[in-house]
Design goal:
Collagen/C1q_domain, single chain, five-stranded antiparallel beta sheet, C1q domain-containing protein, rod-shaped, alpha+beta, Jelly Rolls, binds 2-acetamido-2-deoxy-beta-D-glucopyranose, 2 domains, Tumour_necrosis_fac-like_dom
């Protein structure tokens, strides 16, 4: 029984080896041994596929190179797009600034923003102003300077062309043996008082004020108290100028 069982094992092992060799045979290159013409064809096809996939000059390698070049171009184009975006926002910011400057110029009496510092006027009363009523505006009709055309010598009012810090000062000489009280006025609100008067003589008083003003705000001098008193001509003055403009 043991001998027949051994022979059985040898038989089956031989059969398994033979079938394995038969199965693997087409994978061997054709020059390794004798083979039919169809087996030779299959083998050379395999070789060509291997060369195409992993060879240095194969089609797949060329595709890889092309893809990486495309990625380079793509990232450069994205960089350019970002640069264009940066330029666009810079241009928009400049446009905003120019528009603000235009508005600032437009709100005044033709005063350019670059000339904002050159806002100044100086005027005086050309002749005696008697019988002034209470709160009546004192018109300093005689112009000395009017840089930026900011003072109206007919109404006696200053109008600020641009937002900024402004300085004003007035000196009022009273009539003989009389007193007059006046005030500095911003948009109808008193912001400073002046007393002028003398006993058996004339007397002058003055005051000044610093104001934060918006474009279009008005400042003038008016009578505060003293119906019938008068402001002396030529000795009474009214001046104002911009100290510096606020940002446009
Ligand atoms: C000044 O006014 C006072 C008070 O009214 C008066 O007494 C005096 O005579 C006046 N002086 C002159 C020079 O008119």
């Amino acid at each position: 029984m043991a001998d027949s069982s051994k022979a059985c094992v040898i038989f089956w092992s031989t059969l398994l080896l033979a079938s394995t060799v038969a199965a693997l045979w087409p994978a061997f290159p054709s020059d390794m041994g004798a083979s039919s013409s169809s087996e030779s064809k299959q083998s050379s096809q395999r070789r060509r596929l291997l060369q195409a996939g992993f060879g240095a000059g194969g089609e797949v390698s060329e595709t890889c190179t092309c893809t990486s070049e495309f990625q380079g171009v793509d990232s450069r184009s994205r960089e350019n797009e970002n640069s264009i975006q940066d330029l666009r926002s810079a241009v928009n910011s400049l446009k905003d600034t120019v528009n603000k400057m235009k508005k600032s110029v437009g709100s005044g009496k033709g005063v350019a923003s670059a000339q904002s510092y050159n806002i100044a006027f100086s005027a005086r009363v050309g002749y005696n102003r008697p019988y002034l009523g209470e709160t009546e505006v004192i018109v300093f009709d005689e112009l000395v300077i009017n840089n930026g055309d900011v003072y109206d010598p007919y109404s006696g009012k200053f109008t600020s062309p641009v937002p900024g810090l402004y300085h004003f000062e007035t000196t009022i000489l009273s009539g003989f043996n009389a007193t007059i009280e006046t005030m500095l006025v911003l948009n109808g609100n008193e912001v400073g008082r002046v007393f002028s008067g003398g006993f058996n003589n004339r007397g002058s008083g003055s005051n000044s004020v610093l104001l934060n003003m918006e474009a279009g705000d008005e400042v003038w001098v008016s009578v505060f108290f003293g119906n019938g008193d008068y402001v002396h001509g030529l000795w009474s003055t009214w001046t104002g100028y911009m100290v510096y403009p606020f940002s446009v």
